[in-house]
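Project outcomes to date are best conveyed with an example. Our students and postdoctoral researchers have been running inverse folding experiments weekly, and each run begins with a structure described purely in tokens. The record below, which covers 330 residues, was selected by the lab manager from last quarter's runs and is presented without edits.
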């Protein structure tokens, strides 16, 4: 899988405006109330008259004396909104991708190097969506690519300013898509009442944020490297160590394990050890195995003169620890 680098996160919340939500919930509640009226009266003569139904409706609208019914209707509307989440996600990704790609085209980035938009999270409440703006490749490579066009802080500033355009585009699309999708699933919505008063806000509310801090934090790859050039040889009586590099190796610790069976794990505290203060560049030293001591008993290392013996040697300098494995045959 190609490595990707996240440069920013876009989050958006889709919610029904309070006025539109109230109208939808009212229609749902009224439809359910009518259904109950129809089921409660067995005979036609028992049904309430139109005047009685109008009086009841007027009373309910004035006093809202059915809070449980109203809350249930609101929850029903919210559920319908959430059930269309896949559709809302698609509109969100399409819109964000269009705006963000245009932003990077304007700073001169070729189309084939434009970022991708990946949905990372959704959750109900209203309907909340989150997407990552990503580029393929390593941090260091991306830093070099973007730096060739502009300073990263300048690009990040421009990216964050796309928030208004993304919000406006989402608002325009959701104002059309949400009523089309939601009203067909709601009872009693065959002829929705028009939204009362001047409707500058429309049926939905959109909030959007863009976090471009990852882009501002991009830096060239800082590679810390260390190499050790050693040749190690062991016999039943001595160990030789050669520094193949030109730089001195300071404070070199050496440990040895010897056993009849091959080891797959080691406790370094059980090794026979000794230290070399300095191993100069291109220097070779030969060390007697008797000079390696058990750190607890101070006994010397002894390797049998016959039979198969597995010898494991570790060396440690100021930058790391290195392990060599040997098989001494009869």
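After processing, the design step wrote out the following sequence:
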């Amino acid at each position: 899988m190609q490595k990707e680098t996240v440069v920013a996160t876009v989050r958006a919340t889709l919610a029904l405006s309070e006025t539109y939500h109230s109208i939808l919930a009212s229609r749902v509640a009224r439809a359910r109330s009518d259904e109950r009226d129809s089921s409660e009266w067995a005979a036609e003569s028992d049904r309430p008259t139109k005047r009685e139904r109008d009086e009841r409706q007027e009373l309910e609208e004035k006093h809202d004396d059915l809070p449980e019914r109203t809350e249930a209707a609101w929850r029903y509307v919210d559920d319908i909104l959430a059930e269309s989440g896949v559709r809302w996600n698609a509109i969100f990704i399409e819109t964000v991708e269009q705006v963000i790609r245009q932003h990077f085209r304007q700073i001169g980035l070729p189309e084939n190097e434009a970022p991708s938009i990946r949905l990372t999270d959704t959750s109900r409440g209203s309907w909340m969506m989150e997407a990552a703006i990503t580029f393929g490749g390593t941090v260091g490579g991306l830093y070099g690519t973007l730096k060739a066009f502009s300073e990263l802080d300048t690009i990040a500033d421009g990216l964050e300013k796309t928030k208004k355009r993304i919000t406006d585009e989402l608002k325009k699309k959701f104002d059309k898509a949400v009523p089309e999708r939601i009203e067909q699933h709601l009872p009693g919505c065959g002829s929705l009442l028009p939204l009362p008063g001047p409707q500058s806000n429309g049926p939905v509310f959109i909030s959007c944020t863009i976090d471009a801090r990852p882009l501002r934090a991009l830096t060239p790859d800082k590679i810390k490297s260390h190499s050790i050039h050693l040749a190690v040889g062991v016999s039943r009586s001595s160990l030789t160590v050669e520094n193949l590099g030109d730089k001195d190796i300071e404070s070199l610790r050496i440990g040895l394990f010897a056993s009849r069976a091959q080891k797959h794990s080691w406790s370094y505290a059980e090794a026979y050890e000794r230290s070399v203060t300095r191993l100069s560049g291109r220097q070779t030293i030969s060390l007697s195995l008797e000079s390696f001591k058990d750190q607890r008993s101070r006994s010397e290392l002894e390797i049998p003169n016959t039979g198969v013996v597995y010898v494991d040697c570790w060396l440690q300098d100021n930058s790391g620890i290195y392990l060599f494995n040997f098989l001494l045959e009869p």
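Confidence is low (pLDDT under 50) at residues 37-46, 62-68. The radius of gyration is 37 Å. The training component of this project remains on track.
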